[in-house]
Design a protein that fits this description.
Elements: H1 8-19, H2 24-31, H3 35-43, H4 48-52, H5 66-69, H6 73-81, H7 86-93, H8 100-110, H9 112-118, E1 129-134, E2 139-142, E3 149-159, E4 165-170, H10 175-189, E5 195-197, E6 205-207, E7 214-215, H11 217-226, E8 229-230, H12 242-258, H13 267-283, H14 293-301, E9 317-322, E10 328-331, E11 334-337, E12 346-351, E13 355-360, E14 363-369, E15 378-379, H15 387-407, H16 409-422, H17 427-444, H18 446-463, H19 468-488, H20 509-514
Parallel strand pairs: 1-5, 5-8, 11-15
Antiparallel strand pairs: 1-3, 2-3, 3-4, 6-7, 9-12, 10-11, 12-13, 13-14
Amino acid sequence: MQFERTSMSQVSDIERLINNGLTDRAIARSLKCRRSLAASVRSGKVGKEQILSGMLKPTTPVSIRPWVQGIDWEIVERDIRDGHQIKRIWEEAADSSTSHSNFFKYVKVRFGPLLEATITLREFKPGEHCEVDYAGDKIPWVDIATGEIRYAHVFVGILCFSQKIFAHASEDEKKVNWLGSHRKMFEFYRGSARVVVPDNLKNGVVKCHLYDPDLNPDYVEMVSHYGVAVVPARAKRPKDKALVEGAVGILMRYFRFIYRRRTFTSLAEVNQALSEAVNKINAKIHTRFKISREERFTRLEKSTLTPLPIEPFSISDWKKAKIHQDCTVAADQNFYSAPHIHRGREVRVKISGTRIEIFLNLERISWHERVRGKVGERITKAEHLPANARAYHEATPQTLLAQARFSHIELHRLVDELFQVDALANMRRVQGLVRKAYSIIQKHGHQVAAPWLAGAIAQMRRFNRIRVKAFEEFLNAEMKKVSVARAEDRSIERRPGNPMVRGHGTPAPEAENNVPQLRLVPQEGI
């Protein structure tokens, strides 16, 4: 049985030409359809109601093919309305009785309007859309150093117009590799599309929403650097990024077949093999375009991509910190200053390759050039300190130098050397040294404490321990040496003329002659 192939648009065109006064023959010649169909539309036998019903009545009775009678077409129609693929329906219903092409041709004739109603065409403009996703299959490789089998995660991107494919393998799917794969993809295309369609992984989308999803701040910063908008696919809707889903299948099937006998020993080898596979796929003739993906990209899409910025995106790390009372925050094992009016407040610190930036409520309040190769450095800007603190830091070094000179010349030299390295960083250390020296001088006297101070400073220089705690330890050691020496010398030194010592308090003979002596005179009558 043969059916007339008719669509809603074809009936509308016939009705329009009938209203314009054309004959059935002219309509058939213009629309390249049968004259009987134009006559049926004119008489009202064929119209939009019949099209919407799902099937037209047969116009010419012919012999029915045997395989058609053995299929329950009501079930087939229900499966088509549910959105299932024609190929899967054929495998279940007619695989053993006819070929897929015959089945599809018959279904297209019988349920043509129904098929047209369920298909949504996706049209893309050059340089407009790019879809990205991770492949579900991972590529194993062997670590030669440990013998451990590891797995490479494959990132796949595709330009929707030319369908040129990009792939890159990394150790995992964490934020650094996610952003780095995007950067490599843009460099591979030598430009960026205006819209990127990712999946809803946490590195890209923090919280899914149909209309207003919450994107990862690092991802937003990266796409803003390249001038790209992000439109995530809906949750559990892989058809929203159907092209990259298909590209993943094409690439991984081809890769597994070509390299099925090869064992990879590093990520570099995996990426090299992926690059070769991608180049071969992009160079093959596309079945629909009739030209290769690479040629279509070069001719039509390359010039429409957004140019890359001068500097590539620098992947940064974020951390929470609190501004200390000394107007600094700890970042990257160093201390960077922030405005004093924000002391005690929590901020977010952005650590990039060249800068340290401090943000408070999305507002950048300070930035510094990143110091590398050092630990414990204080990077301070004078404008970040309060007025009295700036005056303090400017005046205190001179005061401490003067106090150190009064204490001991060696202490003065040590303090001067510390201030030459970094006056602000060594301020508190010098204050501790000077204070300890002052306390020893006040307790034992300048003359007694001088050798102790010189010995302690010499020991600090010898062991390279310029610390207040070490200064105290070396001072105690010097003082113990003196006490031990006194304990070993047990001889008693007698001072002449001491009235409290027996035999030493008697006046000298010369003195007795000069001092008048008192005599007792007895009185009478006593």
